[in-house]
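Let's inspect one such protein example.
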Amino acid sequence: MNPAITVRPATREDAELIADLSRETFYETFASQNTPVDMDKFMQTQFAKDKLMQELNEPENLFFIAYNEDQVAGYLKLGDGKNPMQLQNVSAIEIVRIYSVTSMIGKGIGKALMQTSINTAIERNKDIIWLGVWERNQRAIAFYQKWGFKKFGEHDFILGNDIQSDWLMKKHLNV
């Protein structure tokens, strides 16, 4: 692992940073593949800055911030609460968001954040770590498959007015 990369838990004082990172990385990742109308609606409703800042106060959410030396490089949001129907009776945790700032892609940020998510899941005695990923995000799907995630279902994700299909992927942990 790159020694210049560090990951630390986010605190309430990081709420604005997390919200700004969330908005920036989501927009950079998906704006070119969606209509401006759908992106604007999503950013103003589901990804409104105040709403994102409030997420840090919800006890089921765990946030981590990645740095490359002293530069903010990405973030991770884990959700330890709601599981999809297929995992109702399983001890599981969700990778809700895992994003690297565009200029940091390819520098090991995703690897550091994924390792943090797996370590956190193991520390919390989870059997499975899971996530949802847009079926058209082949780069992310390949990254998750490299880490041993396998598709186990699908669900709808509404971006603005566009109903998209997300793959549900999971990884069994040896705890």
